[in-house]
Amino acid sequence: MFVLRNSWAALGRHKVRAVLMCLVALLVTVGSIYGCTVIHQKDYAEHQSYDALTPAAVIRPTAATLKDRSASDSAWTKHYLSWEDYNKIYQATASKDSQIGYTIAESVPVRQSDSVKAITTADADTNENKTGGNLTLQSFYTDQAMDANEYGTIKVVEGKDLNFESNEETSVLVSRELANKNGLKVGSEITLGNPQKASETFKVKVSGIYEYTDAAPTGFGADAKAAKDNRDNVLYCTYFTFATNGLDTTDGKGWGIPDLNIVFTTPNPAGYDTFVKELRKAKVVPDGYLISSPTIIKYEKSIAPLVASSRNMLIMLVLVWSIGGLLLLIMVLMGSCPRRDEIGNALLLGVTKARLGWQFMLEVFYPLLIGWGLGLIIGGTTAHSACSALASYSMRTNGAVMWKVVWIGLGFTLLMAIIAMLRVAFFNTNELFVSPFERDPLEHEHRHEFTAESEH
């Protein structure tokens, strides 16, 4: 009781310092939870989450190759990869890893009609006999192929998404912009024209309206040179709709030749790296084409804000720990070093150094543990939402982070308490028998003057 009572009384005599110690401990704890949460999430995203990906791999023209493309010259279709090209590519990797699979995406330009007009672009008035059409019909065989869409990621905001299991009706998804321009709604029927033969038309139903969730790739947005290249003029459909209307053909001419894109599927990032390595070794990818993974590109883009935030959090942690630790050390020393007379009087009264040292430790424990505990509660309950907002990334609640902060906080609190206790442990008992004048002549002189003035 003596130790508890004296330590609490000592804090009461220095309330401001005690409150400041508590506040600094709270801020350091909350900052530590936030920083460690973001850094832990970044490490998790770059390793466990990344390793869990099943990357898609595509082989598409490079930017330099696309630079020479003319939307009104059908001779460009000679650059399309054929089934023969893809067979060579698949054979170069199939024997190395039996887990390599594939799915299909195909597209052709299609002609507009009175029921649907393309959104205008710089070359919107170009004759469709030259461009094959001012719209593009993009088909997918599976949802994995759709995930690798070169125009970007879409979400259906009205109606139904593509149904890859159904062969009952021919339908398409249209963009919000195209729907608004033409007054299209879910269920509307539109007429499209064959890119090779203007006299051949077919009808499809609008099953849904979509919007893009990411920025347009270069050349596929408002900067498109032709209407059919503007991604808002792209109609999405299943392979069934594409093939049923005679567009999946091997004897097409001009723009009637389908732009075939085989999307390879790999089991994990390591499998994708092996896939790329084997293709480069076999030299079966034509010049002017690049191997890439839309899955990995999209994932790395999604965690980019988290990676940037983790770097900022690391700097913040260094500052919080160094500045906060220095402030607490200064306050601990201020609360223990100037108390020579108090220590000496206590020892003369028979108080042992052990009990006195424990008192000094408790004077540090109280404010630091209170601040540390409050920081754990505040930081633990707000870390998920606060860190998600700071890093623009949905955070995972992780107990390992909290335990790390718990042990760091306990270790630092114990260190500060030990520093306070050492003031007592290293107190020289010989000072008890030194006169005040010998200890501090100035202090003795000031006390003498104060006594003389009091008597006067």
UniProtKB/TrEMBL annotation:
Principal localisation: membrane
GO cellular component terms attached to this protein's record: plasma membrane
Keywords: Cell membrane, Membrane, Transmembrane, Transmembrane helix
Localization annotation: Cell membrane
Entry annotated with the keyword Membrane: yes
Superkingdom: Bacteria
InterPro entries per record: ABC3_permease_C (IPR003838), MacB_PCD (IPR025857), Macrolide_Exporter_MacB (IPR050250)
Membrane spanning residue stretches: 313-334, 405-426
A GO molecular-function annotation: transmembrane transporter activity
Domain ABC3 transporter permease C-terminal positions: 315-426
Topology versus the membrane: Multi-pass membrane protein
Annotated ranges, domain MacB-like periplasmic core: 81-281
Keyword Transmembrane helix tagged: yes
Family named by the database record: Belongs to the ABC-4 integral membrane protein family.
PANTHER family from the UniProt entry: ABC TRANSPORTER PERMEASE PROTEIN, MEMBRANE COMPONENT OF TRANSPORTER-RELATED
Protein name: Putative ABC transporter, permease
